[in-house]
């Protein structure tokens, strides 16, 4: 079934996160409150004001990818190619059994292959333009993951790439859902980001929102009275979307449904107008045909920056009532993964629904003014049918997505 | 429920040699070219040394000194073009709920110019591996993530609805407008400010295209460097700029007596799943995108009055595209005029798709097909009617415009003239 309101199912997950490579490891760690945040190992961070990140340990690209792909890919693309493989395997999909035009790839990106770009910029300025790699023209740009995944799996259907900072991950899932509803039987969608390299680090520091704490348990504290900024991380998730009826017809396991989506952008700073986050949430609920009372858990954006935490808490309280809905921030265990964060939260919500537990927010001592029912320190058993995922990006991007459990 | 249709009611173009839609149209309808030897920096170390540079400075177009400082050149193009497009539409955005006004900006390479300049400083000319954050400009994060372009445009026009950047390489412009049209059609917004901008004329861009010989090495007569479909073509000429549009539901545009340039009648994108930069000769995936876009527009190939080609001027693109037109349009491919404005304004990567949509809409507005400049030498592999050198007066009521990009993206859009939209 296609059409503007046809149900769209998630049938596969591919996860690469700082606290777990693969959906099973990620879920075990996340449910158990295990954080992947630590001191940066990929370069010496001692000269920088922020030194912690959520790095993915133990990812050896050569174990997962053909050697010919390695010279032409940034770390982010290697992670994305591996995650796409895992998502398709998890969905029980053999791409060669589909018509190539019936499969597409829609990803979000934040910084493209930034580490690759640093290497080539260095060659350009230190050695000369003739030393710049033939792969630079595509290895760094924002479309690289969609392009490489489509090539690897022979996916010729509608593809796309969106960039809306940390909100982009949900915008990609929404665009993928749109394409499925318009008639494409399978879309690989989501996002991964990875720019833990000195040039990426310096560019991220310019946000002014990164935590300078050196203590992994005290650095990123969303909704905490001592919130002091965020810790970035690398990774994210890719999902397989299919029309729900077609997925069931092929005997696929339906993890859940992308039921609703809304997006807004905040007015210009200094305009005096309020944040539009609550509107994004309400549009997403309307789109899902859900009332606030139907939502069992909110996977919050959890910026970890006091003024942003406050506007998010206010929006959640206004839509759901103060303390009326469980709220969690599992990304407190991964750091903020930019466009990778929200697809990972959607994956986490689906895994939580299956397990019947809400994963915790770690390390936060909640600011009582926010009046949120935060799930703290350890997982909380709960019957979960409907979850809301919130993602907010630098510049005021707000996206919200309603996810429903599979049967 | 009748299907919502999408009208293009406001337009602005900032292109090399054509800053403003009127000047842009004069340039391309007169067949003049804006390519020249690069002046932005010393191009001597590079293989390709020509570009279509725009004599544009945001400060001269109303940006404040601080706005100009925090925005990459591409963002400046975007903000100025978007604001002028809204003015041109005559739409009173203040009369619409802000969350029903969305923004989409296409850009292939984001703030690449700003990143190149800032990298050079924080690395001290490439000397430092551990680049020095103390030399970074405070707005560097806005260069890192080009969604800052969408935020700037939204703030400038007062939109508070969905906002994003679409970044699908050289099809970004078509794909951004296609994305915006889809949001209007599905009813997620009432108005979409949609367009694309890129400003890639920087050393790193030149170097990376040099490395794969995608840009022309021709240095003599830079005004004749961009030669789509010509037998002597040997690479594209980099350009820069922006085009923006106001998209709204057709009936409500008519109710407010808006000037409708065109209806966005059909759009599709497909991927070749073949190579990040290479193209198969047969053009099958672009042909598929064209077929789907025509079907969405409920048109037959014979309805297409003009094909606005990607026509980049690389050996492989122009024959790939010619094959795609034959495969999708059949015999009509030989009868309909096909032209590439990249011969005049260069290839501005993500921006050009939007600039070409503007050219397509203006072709319908004036019933003139813009020419392919610099086309003197026939190529047996490119055997369609490419409208060489001189514009052609003819009725233009439906235009097909296409794009092809790194990553394998192939996109097609069908625009219908307002007369056609009445039926």
Question: Your description of this structure?
Answer:
The complex is a heterodimer of chains A (407) and B (423). By secondary structure, chain A is an alpha/beta fold. Chain A has two domains: 8-249, Thiolase/Chalcone synthase (Peroxisomal Thiolase, Chain A, domain 1); 259-405, 3-Layer(aba) Sandwich (Peroxisomal Thiolase, Chain A, domain 1), CATH 3.40.47.10. Chain A is 31% helix and 21% strand. Chain A contains twelve helices and 16 strands. Chain A has helices at residues 23-31, 61-64, 75-91, 114-126, 136-139, 144-153, 168-181, 198-205, 244-249, 277-288, 306-320, 341-355; strands at 8-17, 20-21, 37-39, 52-54, 103-108, 160-163, 186-193, 235-243, 256-265, 297-299, 326-328, 357-358, 373-374, 380-381, 386-393, 397-405. In chain A, the strands form three sheets. In chain A, strands 1, 2, 5, 6, 7, 8, 9, 10, 11, 13, 15 and 16 form a twelve-stranded mixed beta sheet that branches. Chain A has a two-stranded antiparallel sheet with strand order 3-4. In chain A, α3 crosses α6 (144-153) and α10 (277-288) packs parallel to α11. The two termini of chain A are 18 Å apart. The mean pLDDT of chain A is 97. Chain B has one domain (6-111, 146-422): 3-Layer(aba) Sandwich (Peroxisomal Thiolase, Chain A, domain 1). The mean pLDDT of chain B is 97. Chain B has helices spanning 21-29, 65-70, 73-89, 112-122, 140-144, 147-157, 172-186, 203-211, 250-255, 284-296, 315-329, 332-335, 342-345, 352-366, 418-422; strands at 6-15, 18-19, 36-37, 50-51, 101-106, 163-166, 191-198, 241-249, 262-271, 306-308, 338-339, 368-369, 392-393, 398-404, 409-416. Chain B is built from 15 helices and 15 strands. Chain B is of the alpha/beta class and 423 residues long. Helices cover 34% and strands 18% of the residues of chain B. In chain B, α3 (73-89) packs parallel to α6, α7 (172-186) crosses α14 and α10 (284-296) packs across α11. Chains A and B meet through α4, α5, α6, β6 and α7 of A and α4, α5, α6, β6 and α7 of B. β6 (160-163) of chain A pairs antiparallel with β6 of chain B.
């Amino acid at each position: 079934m296609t059409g503007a309101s046809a149900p769209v199912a998630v049938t596969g997950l591919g996860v690469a996160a700082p606290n777990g490579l693969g959906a099973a490891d990620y879920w075990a760690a996340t449910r158990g409150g295990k954080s992947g945040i630590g001191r940066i190992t990929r370069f010496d961070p001692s000269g920088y004001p922020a030194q912690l990140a959520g790095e993915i340990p133990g990812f050896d690209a050569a174990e997962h990818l053909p050697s010919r792909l390695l010279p032409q890919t940034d770390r982010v693309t290697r992670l994305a190619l591996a995650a796409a493989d895992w998502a398709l395997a998890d969905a029980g999909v053999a791409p060669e059994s589909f018509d190539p035009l019936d499969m597409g790839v829609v990803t979000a990106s934040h910084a493209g292959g930034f580490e690759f770009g640093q290497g080539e910029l260095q060659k350009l300025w230190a050695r000369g333009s003739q030393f710049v790699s033939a792969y630079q023209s595509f290895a760094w740009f924002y479309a690289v993951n969609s392009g490489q995944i489509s090539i690897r799996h022979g996916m010729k259907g509608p593809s796309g790439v969106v960039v809306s900072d940390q909100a982009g991950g949900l915008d990609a899932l929404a665009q993928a859902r749109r394409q499925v509803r318009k008639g494409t039987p399978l879309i690989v969608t989501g996002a991964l980001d990875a720019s833990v390299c000195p040039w990426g680090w310096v560019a991220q520091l310019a946000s002014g929102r990164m935590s300078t704490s050196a203590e992994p348990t005290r650095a990123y504290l969303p909704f905490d009275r001592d919130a002091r900024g965020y810790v970035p991380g690398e990774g994210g998730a890719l999902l397989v979307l299919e029309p729900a009826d077609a997925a069931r017809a092929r005997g696929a396991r339906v993890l859940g449904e992308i039921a609703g989506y809304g997006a807004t952008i905040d007015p210009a700073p200094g305009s005096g107008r309020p944040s539009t986050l609550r509107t994004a949430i309400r549009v997403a609920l309307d789109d899902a045909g859900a009332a606030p009372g139907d939502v069992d858990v909110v996977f919050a954006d959890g910026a970890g920056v006091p003024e942003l935490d406050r506007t998010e808490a206010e929006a959640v309280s206004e839509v759901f009532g103060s303390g009326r809905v469980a709220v969690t921030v599992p990304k407190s265990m991964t750091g903020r993964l930019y466009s990778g964060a929200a697809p990972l939260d959607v994956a986490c919500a689906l895994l939580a629904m299956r397990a019947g537990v809400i994963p915790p927010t770690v390390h936060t001592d909640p600011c009582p003014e926010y009046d949120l029912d935060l799930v703290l320190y350890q997982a909380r058993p709960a019957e979960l049918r409907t979850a809301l995922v919130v993602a907010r990006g630098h510049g005021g991007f707000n996206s919200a997505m309603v996810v429903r459990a599979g049967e | 429920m009748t299907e919502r249709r999408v009208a293009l009611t406001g337009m602005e173009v900032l292109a090399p040699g054509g800053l403003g839609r009127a000047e842009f149209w004069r340039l391309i309808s007169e067949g003049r070219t804006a390519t020249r030897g690069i002046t932005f920096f010393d191009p001597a170390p590079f293989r390709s040394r020509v570009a279509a540079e725009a004599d544009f400075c945001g400060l001269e177009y109303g940006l404040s000194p601080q706005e100009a400082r925090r925005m990459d050149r591409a963002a400046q193009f975007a903000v100025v073009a978007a604001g002028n497009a809204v003015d041109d539409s005559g739409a009173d955005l203040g009369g619409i709920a802000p969350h029903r006004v969305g923004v989409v900006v296409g850009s292939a390479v984001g703030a690449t110019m700003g990143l190149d300049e800032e990298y050079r400083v924080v690395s001290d000319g490439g000397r430092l591996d551990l680049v020095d954050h103390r030399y970074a400009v405070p707005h560097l994060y806005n260069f890192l993530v080009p969604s800052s372009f969408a935020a700037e445009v939204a703030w400038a026009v007062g939109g508070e609805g969905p906002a994003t950047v679409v970044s699908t390489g050289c099809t970004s412009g078509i794909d951004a407008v296609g994305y915006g049209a889809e949001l209007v059609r599905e009813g997620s917004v009432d108005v979409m400010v949609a367009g694309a901008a890129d400003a890639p004329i920087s050393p790193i861009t030149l170097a990376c295209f040099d490395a794969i010989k995608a840009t022309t090495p021709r240095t003599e007569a830079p005004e004749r460097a961009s030669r789509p479909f010509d037998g002597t073509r040997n690479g594209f000429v980099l350009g820069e700029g922006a085009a923006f549009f106001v998209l709204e539901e057709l009936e409500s545009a008519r109710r407010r007596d808006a000037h409708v340039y065109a209806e966005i009648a059909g759009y599709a994108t497909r991927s070749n799943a073949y190579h990040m930069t290479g193209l198969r000769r047969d053009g099958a995936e672009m042909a598929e995108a064209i077929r789907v876009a025509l079907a969405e527009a409920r048109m037959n190939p014979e309805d297409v009055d003009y094909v606005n080609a990607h026509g980049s001027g690389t050996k492989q693109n122009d024959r790939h595209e010619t094959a795609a037109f034959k495969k999708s349009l059949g015999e009509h491919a030989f009868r309909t005029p096909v032209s590439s404005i990249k011969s005049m304004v260069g290839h501005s990567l993500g921006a050009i798709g939007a600039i070409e949509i503007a050219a397509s809409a203006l072709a319908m507005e004036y019933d003139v097909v813009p020419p392919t400049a610099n086309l003197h030498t026939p190529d047996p592999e490119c055997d369609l009617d490419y409208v060489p050198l001189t514009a052609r007066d003819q009725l233009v009521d439906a235009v097909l415009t296409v794009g092809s990009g790194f990553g394998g993206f192939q996109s097609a859009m069908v625009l219908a003239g307002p007369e056609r939209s009445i039926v």
